[in-house]
Design goal:
The protein is of the alpha/beta class. The chain is built from nine helices and ten strands. The structure holds adenosine-5'-triphosphate.
């Protein structure tokens, strides 16, 4: 890697994944830059969530390596997997809070399950994360009493509880209106700046998500077709990237001449 590029927190090398007869990932190569935000985009059903599941060690590939902090997750044993997962936080679209637990207990869960910290320290840490998420007076509420946006904020507080090195977001704003989505993005931005974690985001929220991305990766035809800055992505000549940009954002013209030609031919 060149001097200008940050080191990779995660590297997928030659990943092939099949479910039965369906080959979802053919040859996925992707390097996730440490401390940066990598957004994975692509049409529905291409396998973006399957990529995240490989990074989390939830599924194993037929072929290839998943390198995380120097370990190959694709071959890791349970103990090593658990050690690596301590460094991960996840916020998935359905959040998956425990309905029978209060907000406070949901957020405290990772610390209670995975550390030996005293209850006093746990309470202080949970308080700090809930404040960071602007969640005041919500401690004793149960998930059923929360709005969609609040649930996501509780989920984000829980995802950050173990001060993870990498946080995975799989369509984190699904089901939220524009202002609640913006709130989640604002909290993501704030916490990433404060805590410095590496972020991997799967999202259909194009072009908004480009504002948060350092790198955008397109998954199509079972491969990552390119990883680049959002600006380069929107102006790329790569046929599949260009098609994706046009389908999601409308045509983008790299030059005034190109745009003028469109009106002339109309
Ligand atoms: N455990 C599984 N067993 C069988 N097939 C699976 C499994 N997990 C995923 N798939 C299949 O893999 C393909 C990719 O799924 P995935 O959820 O990763 O797509 P995606 O790109 O995240 O889509 P979307 O944007 O709609 O969420 C789909 O055809 C899905 O049915």
């Amino acid at each position: 890697m060149s001097k200008e590029q940050p080191a990779a927190a995660i590297e997928l090398v030659g990943i092939e994944k099949r479910f039965g007869r369906q080959t979802v990932l053919r040859d996925v190569n992707l390097s996730v830059a440490s401390g940066k935000t990598t957004v994975i985009v692509g049409a529905s059903g291409e396998g973006k969530s399957v990529i995240i599941k490989h990074m989390l060690g939830l599924v194993r590939p037929e072929r290839g390596e998943v390198r995380v902090f120097g370990s190959n997750l694709a071959k890791a044993r349970k103990k090593e997997l658990n050690r690596i997962r301590m460094e991960f936080g996840v916020l998935f679209q359905n959040v998956a809070l425990f309905d029978s637990m209060s907000v406070f207990d949901n957020v405290a869960l990772p610390l209670r399950e995975r550390t030996k910290l005293s209850e006093t320290v746990i309470r202080a840490k949970v308080r700090e994360k809930l404040d960071l998420m602007d969640l005041v007076d919500a401690d004793d509420k149960f998930p059923a009493q929360l709005s969609g946006g609040m649930k996501k904020r509780v989920g984000l507080a829980r995802a950050l509880m173990l001060d993870p090195k990498v946080v995975f977001f799989d369509e984190p704003t699904t089901g939220l209106d524009v202002s609640r989505s913006n709130e989640i993005y604002r909290l993501f931005h704030k916490t990433q700046r404060q805590l410095g974690y590496t972020a991997v985001i799967v999202s259909h929220d194009v072009p908004k998500i480009f504002k948060l991305a350092d790198y955008v990766a397109l998954l199509a035809d079972g491969k990552i077709q390119g990883v680049m800055s959002p600006e380069s992505f929107q102006l790329s000549d790569h046929p599949l990237i260009r098609r994706y940009v046009e389908e999601t954002m409308g045509p983008i013209y790299s030059s005034a001449k190109e745009e003028a030609a469109l009106y002339e031919s109309a």
